[in-house]
Each structure stands twice: as C-alpha cells, then as structure tokens.
Amino acid sequence: MSAATMTGRPQSGTSGAGATSGAGARRRLAATGAKVWPLLAAVAGIVAVWYAVTYLVLTPERRFLLPPLHQVLGTTLGNPAVMGPMLDALWQTVGVALSGLAIAVVLGIGYAVVMAQAGWAERILYPYAVILQTIPILALTPLIGIWMGYGFSARIVVCVIIALFPMIANTLFGLQSAGPDAHDLFTLNRATRAQRLLKLQFPAALPAIFTGLRNAAGLSVIGAIVGDFFFQQGSPGIGGLLRTYTLRLNMDALFMAIILTALFGVAVFSVFAALDRAVIGRWYGRGTS
Amino acid sequence: MTRTLVLDDVTKAFPTGTVALEGVSLAVAAGEFVSVVGPSGCGKSTLLRLASGLDHVTGGDIEVNATSTSYVFQEATLLEWRSALRNVELVGELRGAGKADRRRRAQEALDLVGLTGFEKQHPRQLSGGMRMRVSIARALVAEPDLALFDEPFGALDEITRLRMQTELQSLFELKNFAGLFITHSVSEAVYLSTRVVVMSGRPGRVVADIPVPWSYPRPPELRFEPEFAALTGEVSAALGEHS
Fold first, then answer.
1. What H or E segment, with its residue span, contains residue A154?
2. Complex ipTM
C-alpha cells in the first residue's frame, strides 16, 4: 500500500502562464477531453464485456447471474420502491465516508506534525501507523462492532482506520520535503519552531497532503461500505443493502447498487483530484501572470 | 576600521575524521569584499557555515561583530509558494517586523536588484538569474553588516553571470557591508573584491591573500584591461602552486 500511496505527484505542465485566456480555455478543454475519452472508452469496454458474458457465455437459465445492463437499469431506475431506499442508503454512506475522512485528515496531519518535530518522535510513533496499516481492516471490523456497537459511530471508525495511513505517510513525507538550505535560511533568521512549521514545512507539504487526501478519500468510501456491510443497526447504508440484495438474490438491485457505489467512488476521487489541481496550481502561482 | 568578521586559527574537523579547514586566519572589515577561491573540496563552503553560525569550529576562534548577517546560498532557495515580494518579506516576518514596514522594505530591495514589476511572480515564473536577484534582495532587505555568499552565480549561464557580477559590485558600493564571497571563478573573484584569498586543497589553508586595487564602481570593461589579466594571473598562479 505504501508504495502506491506515497508516489510523488506528477509534475503537470506550468507553461500555460503566458497564454491568452481564450487559447488557454480551449487548451484546457482539449486537455479535459484527452482525459475523459479513455475513461469513456473503458466504460464502453466494460459494458461490452458485460453483454458478451450475459448473452454469449451464460445459458438462458443461468442468465440471472449477470442480467443485461438494460434490464438492471429498467427494473430499478423507474421504480421508486427500489431506488428510494437505495439513494437514502447511499446518502447515509456518503455521510459516513465524509465524516470518517474528515476525522482521518485531522488525526493524520496532527500525527505527522508531531512526528516531524524530532527524529526520535518519528522513530517511536511511525511503527504504530505502520502496524495499523498492516492489519487487514476485515480482521479488525468485527472487533470494532463488539466494542463500539453496530451503529453509525462504528462505521465511521472503520473509515478512519482505513483512511488514516495515507494521510499520515504523505503529510510526513511532505513536511520533510523542504530542502536543507531552506531550513538553514530559517535557522539564520532565528525562526521559532512554530514559524518553521507554519511558514516552511506545512506549505512545502501541501502538495503531498493533497495526494494523501485523494488516496484517503478513495479509501474512506471503501471503509464506509465495509462498515455498512458489517454493522446493520440504524438506517442501512449502501453496503447494508448490498448484503440484503445478495441474501435475497435480487440481482438487478444488487447490480444497480454496485453501479452506484462505483459512481460514488469515481465522484469522490474526481472531486479531490480537481481540488488538488486547483489548489496546488494557485499555490505555485500558475496562471497569475 | 571595525573588523566585522575575524577567524583566528580556525580548524574544522568532522566526526568522520575529515579535516575541512586547518589553521585558517582571516578578517573581513566593514567596506571590504573578500572572495575566497580554491579547488573543490577545500572547505570554502564550510568556512561560510562557520562564519554564519550554522556550524561550529573544532579549534580556534570566530568573532562576528555584526547586528545583522545575511547568507546567499548556491541555489536561490526561494519558497515556491510565495511571490517574489513575499519571499523577500519572509526575513522581516521571521524577525518580527510590522507588515507595512517589511513590505515597503521588501519592495525597495526588489527595486534595488531591478525586479520592479515582478513582485507578484512566483519563482517558477522567473528565470534563473531573476530568482538569484530575488535571493540577493532577500539578503539585502535585512540591511546586513556582514553578507556571506556561497558561490551564488555558479549555476547561471555566462552572460547572466557577468551581468550579476556588475550588479553585485554596485550593490556593494551602495550598501558597504562586509562581504565574504565563495567562488570557483578567478575572474569573478578579482572583478568583485577588494581582496582575494586563495585556499589550498583539503585540508583548506590560506595560501595567498591578494589585494585588488581598483575603486568602485567597476565598469564591466575592466575585465579586458591588462592589469586585470595580470591580477587574475597572479591568483591563478597561487591556486596552481597549491592545488
């Protein structure tokens, strides 16, 4: 996991500063198109494979295992008795994921800031983060239920645990990314510890923090669904419905729920990726000339 | 004349056993600009770290009589997320100056290095030479009694480098700080300085201390005068004998 979540940010082009706004907008549109096309092609590919398996691989009596997409959409989208509870559940899961993410962000950044204060603090505290990361979340989840009950707060705890590590690791990496000369500059001007943190380390860490945020956001969605799946007390989340549909072999609704969770995951990732680009671009003065 | 920086028989050995400097004595007075040239690894940069207080001697003494010391690094070392003006302002921020005051001083320092109109640009939008100008403005904004330069023009192209030398010597004439300038370039040392100190290879020792006679401002054409060539020859000879 750490290898995937700790990758450096790709250096996006910064040459657009001198472009006129019209050309810039057109180029941005073209760039967006260049990013969207492969995604649409991938979706089309998945749908094609879906239909191929439904009609070419499965015999008619086994076709219920993978109902065709139009049947899934047809029986669910127009049926408020199915879609109503499903959207309510999705909303519930969104709340859990965002709450968990918010807590993970605060805790993760705080933990990394403490570690960045001294080498010994990092050596003592980092192993806890690694251990938390290496225990599979599915092994911990039942225990969390026993301790916390099976409601809303237990689901959030699952979210926090799964989203915490990328926040910690990326923030720490970012806080340590300021060069030795920059640190010397602060030392020579007798900067206090707080000044060094707020004016050097934290701003230098911002790009890495956003990378962590993007990864943590994706993981918090997974955490929320896992939490729903295990903890059924109170109003059900989308993960709870996934379980119910599975038990009832309600295949159309099951596939619709899976599609919704996928869209939710893509939406969360896209929002944070866009936020990342916008904030970091502004941060480094791109396009301010 | 007050001696702003005095190194007396300074030795610096690192825990690894490397002796970077041995028995170095050197003084820089107010109004003096001293360049140090020497082969790679002769402890030139170590000398600056000791003078600035970033590192400590293992033998001998260092005396600094300056209320404000500035340090210009090899790289411009700007904060990427701050505009040119805010980078220069940083010094005032860290030293607790009021906002209006530190902003006005930062603007003056940028004007001084010829960056009027580039205040809002971020480092990524500036050329290498302009970034180094911001770095020099950041050093001047502290009104230093002692200014330390660690090979600041080493990474610049030749044309920019010559222009920066011309600008720096006129800034020195204007501000009259005590300057200590590390460089690999003999002609840069001679052009900028009131004295050129030549160091030997590791461990670094002072092997020659050559005064440069010309007054400031020094025109760029000075570099083509026979006297200039004679002096660079003298420095090169001192370097050659001891490297």
1. helix A152-175
2. 0.92
Is the domain of A60 the same as that of A177? no
Helix (H) / strand (E) element for B179: namely strand B178-183
Q: CA of A11 to nearest chain B CA: how many angstroms apart?
A: 12
Q: Which of A209, A248, A269, A268 is CA-nearest to residue A90?
A: A268
Whether residue A145 is found in the same domain as residue A267: yes
Among A38, A65, A92, give the residue marking a domain's end.
Answer: A65
**Residues A150, A59 within the same domain:** no
Integer Cα distance of A185 and B116 in angstroms: 24
In this prediction, residues B190-213 reach a mean pLDDT of 90
For residue A236, give the CATH number of its domain.
1.10.3720.10
Which chain A residues are closer than 8 Å to B94 by Cβ?
Answer: 186, 189-191, 195, 199
* Full-model pTM: 0.82
Distance from CA of A172 to the nearest CA of B (A): 19
Nearest Cα neighbor of B6 from B40, B30, B37, B42 is B30
Instruction: Kindly state whether residues A108 and A242 are assigned to the same domain.
Output: yes
Chain A residues whose CB is inside 8 A of the B93 CB are 195, 199
Kindly state whether residues A93 and A164 are assigned to the same domain.
Answer: yes
Q: Residue for token digits 């480092």? A: B123
- Would an 8 Å CB–CB cutoff place A289 in contact with chain B? yes
Domains of chain B by start residue, with CATH? 28-55+145-243 (3.40.50.300), 78-143 (no CATH)
Phi, psi of A242 (to 5 degrees): -55, -45
Alpha-helical (H) ranges within chain B are 44-52, 84-94, 99-112, 128-140, 158-175, 186-192, 226-242
Count of structural domains, chain A: 2
Q: Answer whether residue A6 is part of any domain.
A: no
Examine residue A2 and state whether it is found in any structural domain, yes or no.
no
Q: Flag whether A71 is in a domain.
A: no
Nearest-Cα distance to chain A for B65, in Å, is: 16
The closest of B229, B71, B36 to B146, measured between CA atoms, is B71
Q: Which residue among B54, B94, B121 places its CB closest to the CB of A289?
A: B121
In contact, B232 and B190? CB cutoff 8 Å: yes
Residue of B nearest to A201 (CA): B79
Q: Which domain holds residue A35?
A: 19-65
Task: Tell me which of A40, A65, A90 is where a domain ends.
Answer: A65
Residue (of B135, B126, B157) closest to B75 by Cα position: B135
Please indicate whether residue A160 or residue B43 has the higher confidence score (pLDDT).
A160
Confidence of residue A4 (pLDDT cuts 50, 70, 90): very low
Do the domain assignments include residue A195? yes
Which residues share a beta bridge with B24?
Answer: B10
Question: Which amino acid, one-letter code, is at A235?
Answer: S
pLDDT digits (tens, 9 = 90+) for B42-67: 788 899 999 999 999 998 899 998 88
Q: Cβ separation of B93 and A17 shorter than 8 Å?
A: no
Omega of the bond leading into B217 within 30 degrees of 0 (cis): yes
